[in-house]
What does this fold into?
Amino acid sequence: MSWQPRTSSSEPGDAAQPGRRLSPGALLERAVQGARDDEHTALLVVRLNRSDRLAALAQHPESRQTLLEIARRVEAMMRARDHWAVASHDELWVLLVDLPTTALAELAGRTLRESLARPVHADDRSTPIAQLQPVVGGCWTLTSDRDAPVELLRAATAACALAAAEDDQVLISAPQTRMRTIDRNRLENELRVALYANELDVFFQPQVDLRTRRCTNAEALVRWTREDGSTVPPDLLVSICEERGLMNQLTQFVLNTALRHLMTWSGQGLELGVSINLSNTTLADSTYPALVAHTLDTWSVDPTRLTLELTESAIVRNERSAIEFMHRIRDQGCKLALDDFGTGYSSFAYLRKLPIGELKIDQSFVRNMIADRNDGRIVQVLIDLAHTFDMMALAEGVEDAAIAARLAEAGCDVAQGYHYARPLPPFEFAGWVRAFNAGAADQDGTARAVPDR
Ligand code: C2E
Ligand code: CA
Ligand code: CA
It folds into this structure.
């Protein structure tokens, strides 16, 4: 199958040879090597949304079989000049070059999505081993306009996020990358000023111990309200910081602010811990552990009260330096948590090697754990896994009492989510904790004064 009309076989062998797989970096380099200036280049980002998430996580043989089948289907629809790359277990990139019309990018996106959405069967079985719910986003550009490949990737990734809201799950966008860059430039400038002037806020979301039913820790989450009163989603804010080299400043601002509040609360008799999100770039910074130690010292906060949250992708990207980083943080007495656990498709085996004290089970599993039996099983497996490695299990995205109760039954240690509270400004947060721990902020009878473990 090919999305390309074979009649236009301008190059010999074009129709016969499949597209080739490249590394993600090599594929992006290719994006700026189009031959003719009046033709188009398109980059497609494909989120696979595999149903065999649990098998993929454990690198089950059937999961590898699924990957081979995905590769076969992608290559079957490509022309010789097209290339593709596996960006992660859940994401592919497809590069289409020398397109005479942009409609072909659209056609390729739809054909690819249809092909990947068919159930994956093992040779000998009638029940599928996996089902994908692919979402395809893409961006095309005139080869002569050559945007930096990273701009093309950014635009295609943004289109992919928007494609999830489309009926057919496909969205190929025009080259608006420059406009996007301008917007981001403006935001970047405002953000630099806001960071300099300490105009960002840090909110706190309670984490509740499911056994003692007390809140003793909170996750610090950044908030930015611009001068015109609009709010910038934290995800966007973080991505601009990553991209424009402002990440260290942001992380330091959040750490400083959070520890300052912790010290104030401690002075008022409220002893709490806080969790801070670290970005991938921070994990690569070997000077960061010393900065953490210095900041703890400045605010006279005991290191055991600080948890740093990392994601699997940050660790997998540069495993050796990440492990060294984690050991240094742990040796300083701080704790480490693995955020969004279950979405990274990495092997369970590496958990053994990491000095991590807490697994944060991703909200996508927790939210549907009662409605969807598979998600319920995944949550149980992840809780048991955490305990096998002597880690605490924390469930994120707990939105109602039934889920909180089910998590407690399943042995989960800590819960965080709207059921307890949304992220709160510091003043409200302190009041909330006092009331909750006194048993007064109870919305469902869960908050009782039970002695600490
Ligand atoms: P995250 O680290 O996974 O943070 C949890 C997100 O889930 C927060 O979104 C929180 O408001 C939201 N949430 C909590 N409980 C529930 C619930 O019950 N239901 C639902 N639907 N959502 C819930 P938020 O604040 O928008 O942050 C989004 C992401 O932005 C964070 O995801 C984190 O990756 C990043 N982020 C936020 N603050 C910081 C920061 O200071 N530094 C860094 N590096 N990243 C940050
Ligand atoms: Ca987090
Ligand atoms: Ca999370």
